[in-house]
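User: Please fill in residues for this 222-position structure.
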């Protein structure tokens, strides 16, 4: 039955931004609101899946029937994604994880400097890449937020992170990407299928993505 497309499936989704602390009052982050990831979680639950949602700090209510785990930093998201990864059938990383964090953090508020302040940053772990290395039966789907050469960069991420599919999000398109209620994406799978999804609500985009993922799972049972 199509309304229970994901019955019996275990789905893990990451959503939202991460926050990388500098001191007790300051952090680095990005524009993600969690809307895309929460739409995926809500839709997966509605389609009959057992859903775990690992979320960065966002202002959204937990969708009905979804098990939610809250995290703040990229390091915490990494830990929780690894905890919940085993045994999942479908894993989708829509979170906008910080690529860099401050090398040094301060327990007391940093006082104003006389002139410029340089904050040295170091790379965070690429969670998706780690999950790609540890893949068992999971159908692993990444997102790619891009501003230019979107298909080329998306393809590179699909291959380098050992993904089964990638959802490419050109964040320069009006009404798509960060914070909007709508989105427009390109779905690319590892067998070279490329589907352009027209602008629609994030809920409808989520529904279409699960239909495409489900087709892939049928074509290539794991
Ligand atoms: O939350 P909204 O406001 O609704 O916005 C939705 C969105 C624009 C955030 C979403 O649609 C989106 O594109 N998410 C991916 C954002 C992103 O960080 O893309 P990226 O190209 O930098 O990363 C590629 C992939 O690697 C992503 O799946 C990301 O989760 C993952 N990654 C990145 C860095 C890192 N350290 N660990 C990761 O796992």
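Assistant: Residues filled in for all 222 positions:
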């Amino acid at each position: 039955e199509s309304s229970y497309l994901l019955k019996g499936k275990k789905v893990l989704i990451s959503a939202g931004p991460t926050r990388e602390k500098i001191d007790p009052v300051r952090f680095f982050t990005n524009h993600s609101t969690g809307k895309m990831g929460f739409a995926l979680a809500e839709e997966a639950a509605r389609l009959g899946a057992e859903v775990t949602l690992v979320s960065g700090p966002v202002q959204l209510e937990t969708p009905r029937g979804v098990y939610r785990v809250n995290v703040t930093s990229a390091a915490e998201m990494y830990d929780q994604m690894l905890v919940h990864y085993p045994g999942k059938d479908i894993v989708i990383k829509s979170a906008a994880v910080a690529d860099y964090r401050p090398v040094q953090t301060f327990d007391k508020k940093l006082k104003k400097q006389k002139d410029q302040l340089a904050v040295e940053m170091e790379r965070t772990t690429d969670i998706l890449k780690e999950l790609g290395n540890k893949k068992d039966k999971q159908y692993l789907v990444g997102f790619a937020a891009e501003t230019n050469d979107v298909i080329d960069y998306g393809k590179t991420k699909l291959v380098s992170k050992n993904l089964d599919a990638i959802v490419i999000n050109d964040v320069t398109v009006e009404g798509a990407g960060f914070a909007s209620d709508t989105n427009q994406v390109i779905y690319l799978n590892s067998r070279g299928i490329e589907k352009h999804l027209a602008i629609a609500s994030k809920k409808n985009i989520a529904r279409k993505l699960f239909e495409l993922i489900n087709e892939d799972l049928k074509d290539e049972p794991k």
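For context: The longest strand covers residues 139-146.
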